[in-house]
Design brief:
disordered N terminus; Methyltransf_Superfamily; Methyltransf_11; seven-stranded mixed beta sheet; binds S-adenosylmethionine; SAM-dependent_MTases_sf; alpha/beta; single chain; Rossmann fold; about 270 residues
Length: about 270
């Protein structure tokens, strides 16, 4: 598969949605139950409370398709049965479905799941199910490729989800987990400063290596339509003071609509 097509850029300006306290991602292993959501659901206030702004972020991330190119080099998903775990609003489902045999999105949050279902209702081969990484609603040995992007798998504490992946993976299946690399890049530095409690990069690397996963580092970027979009996204991804500090540094460095962004694609075969 070649470079992924860009999504249409119209109608995706960030709403000036209200600021809410709280980190962008829960990083604590074994989170307490979230009322109304399945046990083990990790609070994700960025997409739960700022869904439109998160959509802007998804459009802005990795405009050159470097993450997908990395996954493609490692084996890709063409012709395979794919699981998008923690699929949120289903942003990635359509693109996965272009070449996959089938795509199953699993998402614990019912409102996001409804958006994902609606957005893929005319896309052949896509199914959206309720569930969590720790209790997948899938039979044993039924999946060829797992894709999980900023969802549940943030290092130590995600062992139950890893066991579930091993259960649903067919022999020879592959899994790809996309997560921030806080050791590199402009956004990585912002993230490390905003979430000092998040497992350190070396802790995550030891964790994944101990479970037989390998690291494919990707240095990519955010590319926004406007500085206002960039600011809105920074403010849903970082706690208040860290967001303002990051934006002040960004302006002092010349501003603009681009931010360097490093991720790790953690991957393994079963
Ligand atoms: C930051 S969002 C990313 C959504 C999507 N992967 C994307 O890239 O647009 C994290 C998602 O993981 C979901 N999630 C939270 N806890 C989960 C769990 N235990 N298992 C699977 N998904 C979970 C959240 O509801 C949220 O939709």
């Amino acid at each position: 598969m070649g470079r992924p097509a860009r999504h249409p850029r119209r109608d995706r300006r960030a709403d000036p949605d209200p600021r809410r306290p709280g980190p962008a991602l829960s990083t604590t292993p074994g989170p307490p139950a979230t009322p109304g959501l399945p046990e083990g659901t990790r609070p994700s206030p960025n997409i739960w409370h700022h869904t439109d702004t998160y959509e802007v972020e998804n459009h802005a991330f990795d405009p050159d398709g470097l993450v997908e190119a990395a996954i493609e080099r490692l084996g890709g998903w063409a012709g395979r049965d794919v699981l998008d775990l923690g699929c949120g609003t289903g942003f990635h489902l359509g693109r996965l479905a272009r070449t996959a045999a089938s795509v199953t999105g699993v998402e614990p949050h019912p409102d996001l799941r409804a958006i994902a279902t609606r957005r893929t209702r005319r896309t052949a081969g896509v199914t959206v199910l309720g569930g969590t990484a720790q209790a997948l609603p899938l039979p044993d040995a039924s999946i060829d490729v797992v894709h999980a992007r900023w969802a549940y798998f943030f290092g130590p504490g995600c062992e139950p989800g890893l066991a579930e992946l091993a259960r649903v993976a067919r022999p020879g299946a592959a899994a790809y987990v996309i997560d921030n690399d806080a050791s590199r890049s402009t956004f990585g530095a912002w993230f490390a400063r905003g979430f000092p409690e998040h497992p350190a990069p070396e802790v995550k690397r030891e964790f994944w290596a101990a479970h037989g996963w390998r690291r494919e580092p990707v240095l990519t970027r955010w590319s926004f339509d406007s500085p206002a979009d960039l600011e809105a996204v920074v403010r849903i991804e970082l706690p208040g003071p860290a967001a303002e500090q990051a934006l002040a540094e960004h302006r002092a460095a010349g501003g603009g609509t681009e931010v360097e962004y490093a991720v790790d694609v953690w991957w393994r075969r079963f």
